[in-house]
Amino acid sequence: MDQTHTRALEALQPFIHLANSTSTSSPRLIANLISNATSNPQTYFFAELLENPTIQSLRSPDTPAEYQGYLTLLEIFSWGTWEEYQSTPNLPALSPEQTLKLRLLSLLTLSVTIKHLTYENLMTALSITNPAELESLVTAAIYSSLLTGRLSPASSPPTVNVTSVAPLRDVKPQSLSRMISVLADWETRCGDVISDIEAEIANIKENAEKQREKEKARKSVFEKAIEECSSEKGGENVPSSRMARKMARFGTGAGGIGNKREFSSDDHDDDGYFENGSYGAVDPGLEGRMDIDEGTGSSRGARQVKRVLGRKT
């Protein structure tokens, strides 16, 4: 599509140069220039040529009637359709090349403005009576890169499915105000959407900040509660800690059996009894001493330890 656009601009330049270099405003010469420009198979833009002062000189009241219609014809080639040409009186007859060109340009406009491009709609708009002629026209447009699509003659009704159209039509000056209005409305809607998005983002950030502050306060309360609990129960945990150290030193606890060792004099509670994790009967004859029986064990010399605890003397 871009190459077609470039070729169309390049094809029009010789005609613009010829209009600029013309020293005389001969209506016949200008009419001949318009006919050649609209017959060229590569020209699809005509607005720049239409705005040329030499071409605009045909609007003069002194222009012969037989040439006055050429300026209107060039306007139809710029932004009009085949139907407009058919409905406008006093226009010059078209050559076969001009007929094909105007129908191709009209097909581009119809592909944008008509939702369902049926054979019937296109044949009526382009004054074509034979479906094969319509198919030939659409095929020529596709091979010229004017549009992309496919023919569906077997569908009901037969249709032309157009997927894209080359931007090769000029804009009618009277439609500029409407286009500006449409673009202004579109800009307003875009601004409203952006404002809504920004408000939603601000709301999300605000909620996230509140959630962070809430979590921070909850964590602070939790840590303070832990500190207060540890401070209040700190004194009660001392005996348990001393007992745990004693059990670790004796090698007891959790049903474990300690190794043979001597008891020190401070390994007792305030009541004067030794501790081994349980309180059993004490043999009065064994006060102040500890007997250790070593029995036979495994082949590695494992020893079975029997400890008898008594009251110290």
Mean pLDDT: 79
Question: What is the strand tally?
Answer: 2
Biggest sheet details: 2 strands, antiparallel
- Record the strand order, biggest sheet: 1-2
Percentage of residues in DSSP E strands: under 5%
Helix content: 40-55%
Structural class: mainly alpha
Distance between the termini: 114 Å
Short description:
With 313 residues, the chain is mainly alpha-helical.
Characterization of the model:
By secondary structure, the chain is mainly alpha-helical. The protein folds into 3 domains: 170 residues, no CATH class; 58 residues; 81 residues, no CATH class. 55% of the residues lie in helices and 4% in strands. It is built from 11 helices and 2 strands. A hairpin with a 6-residue loop joins strand 1 and strand 2. Helix 1 packs antiparallel against helix 2 and helix 2 packs parallel to helix 5. Belongs to the CSN7/EIF3M family. CSN7 subfamily. Pfam families: CSN7_HB_subdom (PF22061), PCI (PF01399). This is Cop9 signalosome.
Keywords:
signalosome; single chain; two-stranded antiparallel sheet; 55% helix; mainly alpha; disordered C terminus; 3 domains; 313 residues; PCI_dom
Describe the protein's topology.
Elements: H1 2-21, H2 27-39, H3 47-50, H4 53-56, H5 65-79, H6 82-87, H7 96-113, H8 119-125, H9 131-143, E1 147-152, E2 159-165, H10 176-232, H11 237-250
Helix pairs in contact: 1-2, 2-5, 7-9
